[in-house]
Design brief:
The protein folds into three domains: 3-49 and 322-484, Up-down Bundle (Multidrug efflux transporter AcrB transmembrane fold); 52-166 and 175-181, no CATH class; 185-306, Gyrase A, domain 2 (2-Layer Sandwich), CATH 3.30.1360.200. The protein contains 14 helices and 21 strands. It has helices at residues 3-11, 13-29, 72-83, 103-112, 126-142, 172-180, 229-241, 269-275, 290-305, 323-352, 355-379, 385-409, 418-448, 452-484, and strands at 32-33, 39-40, 44-45, 52-59, 62-68, 87-91, 94-97, 115-122, 124-125, 148-154, 159-168, 185-190, 196-201, 205-208, 212-213, 220-227, 253-257, 260-265, 282-289, 313-321, 382-383. The strands form six sheets. Strands 4, 9, 10, 11 and 20 form a five-stranded antiparallel sheet that branches. It has a four-stranded antiparallel sheet with strand order 6-7-5-8, covered by helices on one side. Strand 17 (253-257) and strand 18 (260-265) form a beta hairpin.
């Protein structure tokens, strides 16, 4: 190929787009040598490819279907007292009990309150599972732990029984300590200037409600929480002593978690007036209006839990990867990728016996993998063994589609005229698009379901198909046209 032909090929928008993406991918991956002289990059590795630990927690609660002829609020309140735990209404026909009981223990309790259990599922509602997930993520992030993943495992009935925590770069003992550690929470009151005094600690908060609008139907968001008797006494005494009841605007209540201020606001006028004469156990912390107020209320709910989960959990399973084993897996994964490309090259050469066709195929296939790795590095997606399997699958499906293009163009072994070439290329691309759509449809359920070990495989496969259809297949069509013209 002479200089003029090469310039025309590179200046084609399809080939130029491919080259630009490859260069950007190399920049995103940023291969370099670290201080110890080891080859490093911006790629993030999961537990399969480096030292780390995973813990699967079982949430101790149940979601039950029920019927009753009592008012729902009264029925739920009485159940909560009898069972000595929080009972929440999930929907019109289901309750969440935040303590583990079997159905035989619950049947007589429901019967005593004129109720009946119609279904029983161990676990918690999706809303509570999401709260557990946010609390664990907040706790892990606050401790500076990198490369951590928290995934809830929710069934088709929207009941979550397990939650899985994966932490790369830590051993099992450290992982259990991180998951089990509770934050230090306290409420303080502003005295003079920026000075504050301790009012109560997190152990004085007996329950935390979900974010709600108050009054109902308004646009004002907040979180309700309940104090113990001792906490209510300390709260009233401090509010009176430091002037929060007489001058609330200059005596803010400040909530602090692990030395970080998470909420600061004055008492409402009505609450300040009530505290002058009585103890208040049920409080409501307003966070504002609109989306910002709702998001802040969600964060405050987590902080009020102080790292304590809304439902008890037990370790249902655990495991990990040692540092030497992780390095071995990483080496084997690289070798598997290289061997896949070499094997594919031999098979393609055996089929066509023409280096000018085989070489573009292999280079296009390799560039596709490189673009995917660049995207993975850019979004800091963790690479694990299922992700590697997805990359290998992309190599296989990519070559299949390149063979379709080549065979369609070289029908009966003859190089077509330019007009016929474009028609055959368009037909080949339409076949590829249909096949790609089938793969994407098949992978979407795996990507969306709570199957954390398969998500990486599904996501990478989908991304590989999209990169192929949008970028690399059109570029190959232009390259192979130039090669066949020779």
């Amino acid at each position: 190929m002479n200089q003029k032909e090469l310039k025309a090929l590179v200046s084609d928008w399809r080939v130029a787009a491919l080259i630009i993406l490859v260069i950007l991918s190399v920049i995103a991956i940023f291969p370099h040598f670290d201080d110890q002289g080891h080859l490093a990059s911006n790629l993030q590795y999961g537990l399969d490819l480096q030292q780390g630990a995973w813990i699967q927690l079982e949430m101790k609660g149940e979601v039950v279907g029920y019927t009753t002829d009592q008012p729902v609020d009264t029925f739920v309140s009485n159940l909560s007292k009898r069972l000595d735990t929080e009972v929440l209404q999930v929907d019109a026909n289901h309750l969440e009990i935040r303590k583990l009981y079997n159905q035989t223990d619950l049947d007589p309790v429901f019967a005593a309150e004129s109720g009946k259990i119609t279904s029983y599922s161990q676990g918690v509602s999706k809303s509570t599972a999401d709260t557990v997930k946010r609390i664990l993520e907040n706790k892990i992030n606050s401790l500076g732990t990198k490369d951590a993943k928290v995934n809830t495992l929710t069934g088709l009935n929207n009941v979550a029984r397990y939650i899985r925590v994966e932490m790369a770069g830590v051993d099992m003992k450290q992982a259990q300590q991180i998951v089990g550690k509770q934050g230090k929470f306290e409420i303080r009151v502003q005295t003079t200037g920026n000075n504050t005094e301790h009012v109560l600690s997190g152990d004085a908060i007996t329950s935390v409600q979900t974010p709600a609008q108050e009054p109902a139907g308004s646009d004002k968001w907040g979180v309700g929480f309940t104090l113990s008797d001792a906490g209510a006494t300390a709260f009233q005494d401090a509010a009176i002593k430091y002037g929060a009841t007489t001058d609330p605007a200059n005596h803010y209540l400040i909530m602090i978690l692990d030395n970080n201020t998470v909420y600061s606001a004055p008492l409402s006028d009505s609450l300040a007036a009530q505290l002058k004469t009585q103890q208040i156990r049920q409080l409501f912390a307003s966070t504002g209006t609109g989306t910002a107020g709702s998001n802040q209320a969600t964060d405050l709910e987590i902080h009020l839990h102080a790292g304590a989960l809304p439902v008890d959990v037990s370790i249902a399973g655990s495991g990990g990867t040692s540092a030497p084993l992780g390095e071995r897996y990483k080496t084997m994964a690289v070798l598997a990728g290289i061997l896949a490309l070499i094997t594919v090259g031999f098979v393609i050469y055996y089929r066509y016996r023409e280096p000018s066709i085989v070489l573009p195929m292999i280079l296009i296939n390799a560039s596709e993998v490189l673009i995917l790795l660049g995207f993975i590095a850019l979004i800091r997606f963790q690479m694990d063994l299922p992700t590697i399997a997805g990359l290998v699958a992309v190599v296989g499906t990519g070559i299949d589609q390149l063979v379709i293009i080549t065979d369609e163009i070289l029908h009966e072994g003859k190089v077509p005229s330019p007009n016929l070439y474009l028609k055959r290329l368009a037909r080949a691309l339409s076949i590829i698009v249909a096949a790609a759509a089938t793969v994407v449809i098949a992978m979407v359920p795996l990507a969306l379901m709570d199957l954390s070990t398969l998500k990486g495989f599904a996501i990478i496969t989908i991304l590989g198909v999209l990169v192929g259809v949008i970028v690399t297949r059109p570029a190959y069509g232009r390259v192979i046209m130039q090669m066949l013209s020779k």
